[in-house]
Amino acid sequence: MLGPDHTGDTAPSLDRADLPAADRASACQAVAPVLARVGDKWSVLIVRALGSGPRRFNDLKRDIGGISQRMLSLTLRGLERDGLVTRTVFPTVPPRVDYALTGLGRSLWEPVEALGAWAQRHHPEIAAAQRRYDAQV
Amino acid sequence: MLGPDHTGDTAPSLDRADLPAADRASACQAVAPVLARVGDKWSVLIVRALGSGPRRFNDLKRDIGGISQRMLSLTLRGLERDGLVTRTVFPTVPPRVDYALTGLGRSLWEPVEALGAWAQRHHPEIAAAQRRYDAQV
DNA sequence: CCGAATCCAAATAGATACTG
DNA sequence: CAGTATCTATTTGGATTCGG
Questions:
Q1: B38-86, pLDDT tens digit by residue?
Q2: Which residue from B minimizes the CA distance to A131?
Q3: Which nucleotide lies closest to A94 by the C1' atom and the CA atom?
Q4: Which of B1, B39, B114 is closest, CB to CB, to A11?
Q5: What integer best gives the mean pLDDT of chain B?
Q6: What pLDDT does residue B4 have?
Q7: Cα–Cα distance list, B125 to A54, A84, A103, B29 (Å)
Q8: Chain A residues with beta carbon closer than 8 angstroms to that of B14
Q9: What strands, in cross-sheet order, belong to the sheet with A85-90?
Q10: Of B108, B30, B113, B133, whose CA–CA distance to A34 is shortest?
């Protein structure tokens, strides 16, 4: 799969035959950091929580549940650094900080959602496979 | 999160309004482990390498490059456990083991590719955002 | 040739306490 | 309210060695 004889769907392929091997390799390298960001334990949940609009720090913490202040702070900073999330400080007292998705962040939602739909559709199969594997060992 | 007033695009949504909140939450939980699997440093590269057909252990090691035996072995076992990859031992001497994608593994490729396409399209923006962020600090 | 086992270093995550 | 600082526990990854 993913050779020049790929499935032929219209999605832009990472494996474009018009690129030399080195560029295909570097394209592959480009994917890895994004998957690392999206694949970490919290980023997607945050992006998802922000999908319906801006949220404050502690609202996010409550919405997501199970995340420590530290990880929420670190992950938000990473998302901000990558241009996926904006951080807006209102100099009021008590202080208030809103986090919101950027256009880039919103554009990320669609492929993440596609993966989420896959996960949703197939996670019974995965769970079954895991049970089979664990039982046999 | 992701209320009925979502962006309204036509993509199949995780946030189907016909599901009660608890199901949306559990859907969210279902996504995380899959993203963790796909988001680790090597799984996607392995799935990708297997995309064009079965491969032997050391072929994979060479194809991927930079992966240790340990991580290749561990990651393959994880993918096998999740039912994404099959492991076939040929009792020859010297021994030979083929790894191949299952149907489930192949079905995963499409959403991964969508994410990869996003990464490809937007990674200049991400890099720029990172430079901006790093410069301003 | 395939890969398990061991050992070690580094990165990561949680809990807790503290600050503007 | 919105974090930072610190400490520790867990996870992760590489290198090396050994076995089937």
A1: 888 899 889 989 999 999 999 999 999 889 999 999 999 999 999 999 9
A2: B81
A3: D1
A4: B114
A5: 81
A6: 34
A7: 22, 10, 11, 29
A8: 48, 113, 116-117, 120
A9: A55-56, A96-101, A85-90
A10: B113
Given A14, A106, A120, which is nearest B113 (Cβ)? A14
* Mean pLDDT, range B92-118, rounded to an integer: 92
- Regions in chain A scoring below 50 on pLDDT: 1-24
CB atoms within 10 A of CB B98: 16
Q: How many CB atoms lie within 10 A of CB A50?
A: 27
CB of B89 closer than 8 Å to CB of B97: yes
Distance of residue A98 Cα from the nearest chain B Cα, in angstroms: 15
pTM: predicted TM-score of the whole model, two decimal places: 0.80
DSSP classification of residue B102: -
Q: Which nucleotides of C are covered by protein (CB under 7 A)?
A: 1-6, 13-17, 20
CA-to-CA dists, residue A106 to A51, A112, B42, B116, angstroms = 7, 10, 26, 16
Beta bridge partners of A56: A98
pLDDT at B65: 87
Query: Which nucleotides in chain D lie less than 7 Å from some protein C-beta?
Result: 1-6, 12-17, 20
A125 contact partners, CB below 8 Å, separation of at least 6: B83, B104
So what's the pLDDT on residue B27?
A: 54
